[in-house]
Specification:
The structure is a homodimer of 123-residue chains. Chain A is mostly beta strands. The first copy, chain A, has one helix at 39-48; strands at residues 4-5, 19-25, 31-37, 52-55, 60-63, 72-79, 86-92, 107-110, 113-116. In chain A, strands 3-2-7-6 form a 4-stranded mixed beta sheet. In chain A, strands 4-5 form a two-stranded antiparallel sheet. In chain A, a hairpin with a 2-residue loop joins β8 (107-110) and β9 (113-116).
Chain lengths: 123, 123
């Protein structure tokens, strides 16, 4: 069976050259967050083993945790069936969310009401 | 503490009125797929308990599994910190992927090469 070498340019990016990447914790299966990458961020992620997104607001590479220390060590990078979404299985150091919660998805809709599932971690 | 009733219009949609929604299997933690919803699809999902996306290609509501039987029963709908991404915890009936694989993320990049993690299920 022929091997396909991975080329980031073969992924399907949106009109802004971005692809969504879901981060999932390897040890627990928690879905931590979703953020965006461009082709170069995908390449850097694979090269360095440290998940690197593209910050749309700052228009700059965002190595997750470079400031906070809450880094994501890449365990496995996966591509979906139509190649327009990524799944990064990671080992997350500390909280993934900038609000200092373990995951970003901390609000649930239950019986029509928003419920907070977890509080920020103590510093 | 005041309750916030959930209003789909308070989510942050993109320029096309869409928000990404990640589907995760409740029983195993598998990340199944990611697809898009508009505000009405979010409302229908909560109302019916059956995950309903918006098909960008068909420009129509897509009740997951309506044709294939591979439905997603909603267990919990969660919102991320900046309200521009959803996480649907679901019970998935059969394979989630249209290629008849359990999940859409069946290709991994390992040592620079694309590796197929699972084959389509037998019919």
């Amino acid at each position: 069976m022929t091997e396909t070498r991975f080329d980031p340019s073969t992924l399907r990016y949106d009109a802004n050259g971005l692809i969504p990447c879901i981060a999932q914790e390897e040890r627990t299966g928690e879905v931590l967050m979703m953020a965006w990458m461009n082709a170069e961020a995908v390449a850097k992620t694979l090269e360095t083993g440290r998940v690197t997104y593209w910050s749309r607001s700052r228009q700059a590479f965002w190595i997750k945790g470079e400031t906070s220390g809450h880094v994501q060590e890449l365990v496995d990078l996966r591509i979906d069936c139509d190649r327009d979404c990524l799944l990064a299985v990671v080992r997350q150091e500390g909280p993934a969310c900038h609000t200092n919660r373990r995951v970003c998805f901390y609000t649930a809709v239950r019986d029509g009401v928003e419920v907070e599932l977890m509080e920020p971690l103590a510093d």
